[in-house]
Amino acid sequence: MKNKPEPLETIAEIRSLMERSSRFISLSGLSGVFAGIFALMGTAAVAIRFRLSFTMEEYYTRATLNSGVPDAKFFIFLFGVALLVLVASVGVAIFLTTRRARKHNLPVWDKTAQRVVWNMFIPLSAGGIFCLILLEHGIFTLIAPATLLFYGLALLNTSKYTYPDVRYLALSEISLGLLASFLVSYGLFFWAIGFGVLHIFYGARMYQKYER
Q1: Residue 175 CA to chain centroid, in angstroms?
Q2: Eight-class DSSP state of 197
Q3: What is the C-alpha to C-alpha distance for residues 129 and 144, in angstroms, rounded to an integer?
Q4: How many whole angstroms from its chain centre is CA 118?
Q5: Residue ranges of the domains in the chain?
Q6: For the range 197-201, what are the long-range contacts, defined as Cβ-Cβ under 8 Å and sequence gap of 24 or more?
Q7: 3-state secondary structure 50-77
Q8: Is 194 exposed, middle or buried (0-12, 13-18, 19+ CB in 10 A)?
Q9: Where are the beta strands (DSSP E) in 92-182?
Q10: pTM greater than 0.85
Q11: Taking the chain, what is the end-to-end CA distance rounded to the nearest angstrom?
């Protein structure tokens, strides 16, 4: 005669199935750690290339010529580094998340994953366009805060489809972006904290909490 499953075990199993169907739990915390490392490397590259300190007391004045016209070399290098960091971070995230999903027999590209991508895409696209508008109008000092704010909003928009920790990361990015809006001379420093340190901290926390 087969033993009947305990009620608590049954509830736990049902809860696990519901979580798998409604949340994107294949996301690897290590991807956040690598993204943070790449961001710190990129920030350091910009600082070294243009002899800037992380506090950047007058970073925006170094980004423009005496006539007030944007220095093309600065922004080409800046956006080039940002693109390289983005591609490397996304590539590592796809690799680690796919590996984790296969290890636990979880779907990689299901409806939940599509919701995550779509809900990230809309705020990030709006933020990218807004930053280009700021650049067009010569408002360089608000570009760094805007990237942090829109990235935080994108994370907040997707947090309901993945781990709860993502919500705390989102709120941290938004708070940092608002603070950077007041301390505009410290743009590179806030970039290093927001995209570097916070990613490493929350990525390591998620790895320890869900993957170890």
Answers
A1: 14
A2: I
A3: 14
A4: 15
A5: 27-211
A6: 197/36, 197/40, 198/36, 198/169, 198/172, 198/173, 199/32, 199/33, 199/35, 199/36, 199/39, 199/169, 200/32, 200/33, 200/36, 200/37, 200/40, 201/36
A7: CCCCCCCCCHHHHCECCCCCECHHHHHH
A8: buried
A9: none
A10: no
A11: 37
3-state secondary structure of 164: coil
| C-alpha closest to that of 149 among 173, 181, 116 | 173
d(CA 97, CA 113): 11
How far, in Å, are 48, 187, 193, 209 from residue 42 at the CA level? Answer: 10, 14, 12, 28
Q: Output the six-digit token pair for 107.
A: 């779907």
Distance (Å, whole) CA 180 – CA 191: 9
As to burial, measured by CB atoms within 10 angstroms (0-12 exposed, 13-18 middle, 19+ buried), residue 70 is middle
Q: What distance in Å separates the CA atoms of residue 99 and residue 122, rounded to the nearest whole number? A: 27
For the chain of 212 residues, list the mean pLDDT of each consecutive stretch of 10: 50 45 66 94 87 60 52 78 92 87 76 85 94 85 91 92 89 95 87 94 90 76
Q: How many of the other CB atoms lie within 10 Å of CB of 134?
A: 16
Give yes or no for a contact between 145 and 190, defined as CB atoms under 8 angstroms apart.
yes
